[in-house]
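ARCHIVE CARD
Drawer: 12
Card no.: 0347
Subject: one protein chain, sequence and derived structure
Cross-reference: see card 0346
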Amino acid sequence: MSIDGDTLPKHIKDDGRNTYRSLQIQNEEIDFSDGFTSLHTLSYHAILEGNGFRLDASRAAIELVHDIRVQTPVGLHGDYHPFALKPIKSHPFLM
């Protein structure tokens, strides 16, 4: 995933898309870019209808995100996505 449109692959830009989500597992790419456009809106509708997730169901995800955020970065080691080599420019999410 990228938060910098400048790092999007050419074929994605040529299609007029501004997001690209992909996983590579054992040299096989899984592109899951489509379907995320209205995900937050659908989630909020479900929450307002009383179908949200309870804290006990969300706790593990919240704790995992916290644990990741407080780790010290170690750089690129082992198996990583090739986009990790692309330059990072200043972005509000990174500050």
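Annotation on reverse: The beta strands are 22-25, 28-31. Residues 5-73 form a domain with the Dihydrodipicolinate Reductase; domain 2 fold (CATH 3.30.360.10).
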